[in-house]
Structure formats: C-alpha cells, structure tokens
C-alpha cells in the first residue's frame, strides 16, 4: 500500500478526525462516554471524551476548571496513582486513560469528568 493510500484510509476512519495544522494531529470523531466506579474511592463518575481542535492538547475539565495533561500539573505526593491538579481541583488515576489516548494517536481531546454525588474538589478516572 502506498503512503498516499494509507493516509486516505486513515483519514476516512470513523473513529478519528483529522485537522490540518501543518503537523498532522488527531482527535476523536464523536463523544465517548462511560460511567463507572473509581478504583481508589469507589465513587461513581462519568467520563466523557470529546473532540477538540488542533493544538488544544489533552485536557481534563472538572467544574469548569481546565486541567492540562502536563507534567507541570502533576502532583508529586500521590501513592498508587497519577494525579493532575490546577487551582485546587484534582483529577486522580489519569495514567491509563492518557496512555490509551497516546497509543491511539489522539493528540487533542476534552475529557469531562462528573461525580455522582457532591464531589468536593477531586474526581477520579473510572477503572471500568
């Protein structure tokens, strides 16, 4: 298969949307939504992965706070999970979801997380 044919087949994929930026970047084509229990807290959370524009990056949205998936937002003292924090809000157990997005080639997406109860200032990516 030629490079052009391979590119056309990837571009036609229903799971990936291509945005022209000079550098090829990918996002999800549609909203992906799952509800389940957090591994550490046992609380119920809903995670939505939504398409995002090129150069948006991978960002978690919790209570209108944008938490970029960046080493700059990583909390150093969290045993058994990776936690991101911004303005006092925290998203726990992000490592598996971020690894899956990287392996899938998703460069840009909004990851909205909601809790079933009265989540104070932290949420957890579900383990289901």
TrEMBL record:
InterPro entries, per database record: Ribosomal_Su5_D2-typ_SF, UDP-acyl_GlcNac_deAcase, UDP-acyl_N-AcGlcN_deAcase_N
Source domain of life: Eukaryota
Transmembrane segments: none
Record's protein name: UDP-3-O-acyl-N-acetylglucosamine deacetylase
Species of the source: Rehmannia glutinosa
